[in-house]
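Q: What would this chain look like folded?
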Amino acid sequence: MRAPSSVLTSGFVVLTIVAIAVLASPPFARVFEATPRNTVITTAPFIWLPVVLVQAALFGHLLVFRWLWRHRASAPPSLAPPAG
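A: My prediction, written as structure tokens:
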């Protein structure tokens, strides 16, 4: 079974964004120079944004998907996935 093109496109976009973010970050090569340098994200209160909030969003998505998976049998017939 082939993956839909939207899934592949979304994956490519996410990988591109992550690659640009890593290459532009101060500890790495800084391929994309920005003047003045933005080092605020590496200071105390701002470092918790990606560390905590991204993990919280991921955990929230996992909870929703788990709830949807467990309640898929109780969906109305018009919304239930086809059997087979």
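The radius of gyration is 20 Å.
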